[in-house]
């Protein structure tokens, strides 16, 4: 009898979609499931939103959880409701204290409320620098991903992030971070895997290395 493939649930970043993971590859024993974001309620916090999303995950059998950027933040809240075999945070943070100072100041002053909708849908040299993309093909993909961003969801998510209440990161997470991440730089935490000269969008630009890390952890061949 053939064994059922092991599910890996992926949560993309804010403004991104499943295409961000297009170069991450796994053996056939695993099946990749991309969890789409749904409309948030007017009073939803990250924890409340995660409680709803947890219902979309079949936790009756072993599974893995992978979150990119905002998706990693949401993974931390999902761990209140589900128990994956392992949880991976890529280019992400796990508690409010790890947010960059600029984000904290902007959040306290509610500056994010003044941002025009198009601020999260347009790509220019600033966004490309923040995401760390240099190749033309990566720039084009980033442009298209941002172009199709759900602006209403982005506004809610940004507010939810800057008002996040989590004080301590979960203990059962595996962090993968780039040394040149300009959007969410390493701030008070030490990732298990530090990808040299990699930016915020390293899931695309360093996909092979990240694939090897994920597979190694899932197969029990991880390096300390």
In short:
The chain is 33% helix and 12% strand.
Q: What's the overall average pLDDT, rounded?
A: 89
**CA distance, first residue to last residue:** 35 Å
Instruction: Quickly give the CATH architecture.
Output: 3-Layer(aba) Sandwich
Q: State the fourth-level CATH superfamily.
A: Alpha/Beta hydrolase fold, catalytic domain
Topology:
Layout: E1 6-11, E2 30-34, H1 46-54, E3 64-68, H2 70-78, E4 87-90, H3 101-108, H4 125-131, H5 136-147, H6 151-162, E5 174-178, E6 193-195, H7 202-205, H8 207-219
Parallel strand pairs: 1-2, 1-3, 3-4, 4-5, 5-6
Please tag this protein with its features.
224 residues, alpha/beta, Rossmann fold, 6-stranded parallel β-sheet, 8 helices, 6 strands, globular
Structure overview:
This protein is of the alpha/beta class and 224 residues long. α1 crosses α2 (70-78). Helix content is 33%, strand content 12%. The protein has helices spanning 46-54, 70-78, 101-108, 125-131, 136-147, 151-162, 202-205, 207-219; strands spanning 6-11, 30-34, 64-68, 87-90, 174-178, 193-195. The protein contains eight helices and six strands, in the order ββαβαβααααββαα. The longest helix has 13 residues, at 207-219. α2 (70-78) links the parallel β3 (64-68) and β4. The model has no long low-confidence stretch (mean pLDDT 89). It has a six-stranded parallel beta sheet with strand order 2-1-3-4-5-6. It starts with 5 loop residues before the first strand and ends in a 5-residue tail after the last helix. It has a single domain, classed as Rossmann fold (3-Layer(aba) Sandwich).
């Amino acid at each position: 009898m053939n064994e059922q493939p092991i599910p890996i649930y992926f949560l993309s970043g804010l403004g991104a979609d499943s295409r961000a993971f297009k170069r991450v590859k796994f053996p056939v024993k695993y099946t990749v499931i991309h969890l789409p974001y749904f409309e948030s309620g007017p009073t939803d916090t990250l924890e409340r939103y995660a409680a709803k999303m947890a219902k979309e995950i079949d936790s009756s059998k072993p599974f893995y959880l992978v979150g990119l950027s905002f998706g990693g933040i949401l993974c931390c809240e999902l761990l209140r409701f589900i128990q994956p075999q392992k949880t991976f945070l890529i280019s992400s943070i796990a508690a409010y204290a790890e947010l960059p100072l600029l984000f904290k100041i902007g959040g306290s002053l509610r500056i994010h409320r003044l941002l025009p909708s198009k601020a999260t849908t347009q790509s220019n040299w600033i966004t490309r620098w923040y995401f760390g993309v240099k190749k033309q093909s990566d720039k084009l993909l980033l442009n298209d991903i941002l172009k199709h961003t759900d602006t209403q969801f982005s506004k809610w998510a940004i507010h939810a992030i800057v008002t996040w209440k989590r004080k301590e990161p979960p203990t059962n997470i595996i962090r993968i971070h780039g040394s040149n991440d300009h959007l969410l730089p390493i701030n008070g935490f030490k990732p298990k895997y530090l990808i040299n000269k990699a930016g915020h969008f390293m899931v695309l630009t360093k996909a092979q290395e990240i694939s090897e890390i994920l597979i190694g952890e899932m197969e029990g061949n991880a390096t300390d």
